[in-house]
């Protein structure tokens, strides 16, 4: 781990990677940002373009195109490389292609002597994070995925609209797979510290029946955006910055990253989105929620789907 200056290597300088890089520059996230892509010209051009914004930025960041060898003293390697969903495709449809891409990325990163934290955004993100753990041999807490951080942000936005409240005052999570089996444990959703279900029972303008429409809206958001503009990238770019900042500053923030289950809710080995304390060292501890029986059942189903999909790759 680099102790003098905060260094991030970004692998994959496409829409998601560069949305992260642009947000990182604007939010003065780190001191060094190295861009790596199989398309070296693209990485070089992106580094030039970002550098031309330095005169207008608050940051004085060292931004350059580089190689896997640059990872040796990085704090975080962010992976956004691979293929993205097209209209009509599910995230899991990308698995075989992106697993092959990761073979060519994770090993050279590890061979560089990298001793920091892997943060994976490539889809299907929970399984790609597990594959990164397998390929790297790193301890699980140093390999995390973006999980349902973006979904939770979408949920907070939609609940903020519904209750006419600042999304920052909405405390609610989407958990499980970053994909179709994800769900909202409504028993744990709060506005301030007041449960959303209680608000629905007290005020006649709010209905619990509307809540399922909101969670459907979160689940279908990516499909809707991809249909409209072919890809999603700004929201995830900002989510990656948020997770990196929690790591670099040892914030111990609770974020729904993709992390490994170690017996929580009877689940083991599977990576999925759960509220987790994120700080230096990566995923420090999963926050166990007092889920209802029905919510625990949904989490189990999501975990089973992810486990079966991961195992199907070996066949
Ligand atoms: P993109 O096609 O714009 O960019 C992908 C980049 O990866 C390209 O620059 C490509 O050259 C590079 N690449 C491909 N193979 C490589 C390799 N072997 N080594 C190094 N670089 C390689 O795609 P995008 O829109 O940026 O999406 C990237 C990934 O992020 C996709 O898997 C997408 O589904 C995912 N995504 C995740 C979330 C989330 O919430 N986790 C949200 C949106 C998108």
CATH class of the largest domain: Alpha Beta
Strand order of the largest sheet: 3-2-1-4-5-6
Major sheet attributes: 6 strands, parallel
Q: Domains counted in the coordinates: how many?
A: 2
Mean pLDDT score, rounded?
96
H/E topology pattern: EHEHEEHEHEHEEEHHHEEEEEH
Identify the overall geometry. Answer: globular
Bound molecules: nicotinamide-adenine-dinucleotide
Q: Residue share in helices?
A: 40-55%
CATH superfamily name of the largest domain? Lactate dehydrogenase/glycoside hydrolase, family 4, C-terminal
Unreliable segments of 5+ consecutive residues: none
**CATH fold topology of the largest domain:** L-2-Hydroxyisocaproate Dehydrogenase, Chain A, domain 2
Number of distinct beta strands? 14
Which percent band covers the strand fraction? 15-25%
The end-to-end span amounts to 36 Å
> Which structural class is indicated by helix and strand composition?
alpha/beta
Based on the structure given, which CATH architecture of the largest domain is correct?
Alpha-Beta Complex
Q: What is the tally of helical segments?
A: 9
Cα radius of gyration in angstroms? 19 Å
Polypeptide structure, described:
This protein folds into 2 domains: 139 residues, NAD(P)-binding Rossmann-like Domain (Rossmann fold), CATH 3.40.50; 164 residues, Alpha-Beta Complex (L-2-Hydroxyisocaproate Dehydrogenase, Chain A, domain 2). A 6-stranded parallel sheet has the order 3-2-1-4-5-6, sandwiched between helices. Strands 7-8-9 form a 3-stranded antiparallel sheet. Strands 10-13-14 form a 3-stranded antiparallel sheet. The relative contact order is 0.14. By secondary structure, it is of the alpha/beta class. The mean pLDDT is 96. The radius of gyration is 19 Å and the shape is globular. Helix content is 42%, strand content 17%. Helix 2 links the parallel strand 2 and strand 3. The chain binds nicotinamide-adenine-dinucleotide. Nicotinamide-adenine-dinucleotide (NAD) binds next to helix 1 and helix 3.
């Amino acid at each position: 781990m680099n102790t003098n200056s905060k260094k991030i290597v970004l692998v994959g300088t496409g829409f998601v990677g560069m949305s992260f890089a642009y947000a990182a520059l604007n939010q003065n996230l780190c001191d060094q940002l190295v861009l790596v892509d199989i398309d070296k010209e693209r990485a070089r051009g992106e580094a030039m373009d970002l550098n031309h914004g330095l005169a207008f930025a608050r940051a004085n960041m060292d931004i350059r195109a580089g190689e896997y060898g640059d990872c040796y003293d990085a704090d975080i390697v962010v992976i956004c490389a691979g293929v993205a969903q097209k209209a009509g495709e599910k995230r899991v449809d990308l698995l075989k292609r992106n697993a092959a891409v990761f073979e060519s990325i994770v090993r050279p990163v590890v061979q560089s002597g990298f001793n920091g934290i892997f943060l994976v955004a490539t889809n299907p993100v929970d399984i790609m994070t597990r594959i990164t753990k397998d390929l790297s041999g790193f301890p699980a807490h140093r390999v995390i995925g973006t999980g349902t951080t973006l979904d939770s942000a979408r949920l907070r936005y939609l609940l903020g609209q519904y209750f006419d409240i600042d999304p920052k005052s909405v405390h609610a999570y989407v958990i499980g797979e970053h994909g179709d089996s994800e769900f909202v444990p409504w028993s744990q959703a709060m506005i301030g510290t007041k449960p959303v279900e209680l608000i629905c029972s007290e005020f006649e303008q709010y209905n619990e029946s509307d809540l399922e429409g909101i969670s459907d809206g979160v689940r279908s958001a990516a499909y809707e955006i991809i249909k409209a503009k072919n890809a999603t990238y700004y929201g995830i770019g900002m989510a990656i910055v948020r997770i990196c900042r929690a790591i670099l500053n040892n914030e111990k923030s609770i974020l729904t990253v993709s992390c490994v289950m170690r017996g929580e809710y009877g689940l083991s080995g599977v990576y999925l989105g759960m509220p987790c304390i994120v700080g230096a060292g990566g995923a420090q501890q999963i926050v166990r929620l007092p889920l209802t029986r029905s919510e625990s059942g949904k989490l189990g189903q999501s975990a089973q789907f992810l486990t079966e999909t991961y195992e199907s790759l070996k066949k």
